[in-house]
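Researcher: Next sequence.
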Amino acid sequence: MNPWNFWLKRLLLLNKRLFYRPSYILLLLMVPVMVFTLRTWAGSETGFATIGICENGMEDEATRELFDTFVKKQDHMQFLSYEDAETATEAVAKGEIDAAWIVQEPLSSVMESVQTGTIGNRINGRIFLHIVLREKTVNLLFASELLNCAIYRYTSYAAYAGEVQAHTVGERTEKELRDLYESRVYEKTFLISSYLDENKDGSAKEGEKDISLLVAPLRGMLGVWLFLLGLIGALYYEADEKKGLFVWWKGNALLREAGYILQILLNGGVVYLIALVAIGVFTDPGREITALCLFIVASALSAMLLRRICRSGKVLAMLIPLIVIANLVFCPVFLTVRLIPRIKYLFPLYHYMNCLYDSFYLRSMVIYTLIGAGLLIVGQVRGTKMGFRFSKRVI
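Model: Next structure:
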């Protein structure tokens, strides 16, 4: 019998058997739950922060224009309107909103003060906005900085107009001042961020697109899930081996274990790709599939090595929560942690998350895979040395 047909038939039988395991079905169902939750969150009005805006009944055109323009540009924050400062402050205290922006003085009045005042004393201690916070978080501080940037355009014009009026002969009309100011405004961004293999102007390559910040962590979360699937596959293999499931399977035990875990991960890989497409973070097909295949192989080898290092499925099962947390901490899922920088190279997820945008990490993941395979082969040959429990049996 052709050995390839032999292996293929048995792996297909094992794959069919997986879907009789309730725990495996639950693991696969985790993905649509994550995708649905994030899609719902991204599509809802709620974002990083909920902020109440109170104009205190002031009918000021500049203030209204500022907030209307600002609210339209912020897709990741929710804004609510309040009639008076007391109601807005009470909403913050009750936790209904995260912060309240309470207008103390019309923006047009502040601009007039800036325009007619001296350079060193433009505002004269006057407060345009009073910000009430429930707690000082990064999201709220970031929102305040964004608002400062929006206000700057108004106050900078007022300061510019004041200086022009003070240092030129004759009165200039509002239109002339506005045209002069707009002619000197630098509309382009001063800073451009790009990945190493993106276009130099910071634009994405053809076929790639920007993704919502709310769903950006999904790739990392799914990567952790796929790596977890490999660890669960190693536990399944050990349990089936103890049950004598493989007594009829003649062949190298190492290859058999690799095939067993790989077919579990391949199922997860298909679900993973569908989830990326559904959430809208799927990029170049060639790079996505190449990187995913390498990640699946690296995850399978890592699971096999960890099972041998732990020497027991029970120990590995107890360590799985710590391994998942380590992946979340040392891999760029939510943020990049600089703690113990070299340890991050031990995680296949770290190479995978970076190789999509930097071809260097694609090569590093190939090296990672070769090293993992080499350690397993050496361990298979040398048996129980170096603290590993490798099986030398050929059944």
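Model: Residues 3-41+215-387 form one domain. The CA atoms of residues 249 and 256 lie 9 Å apart.
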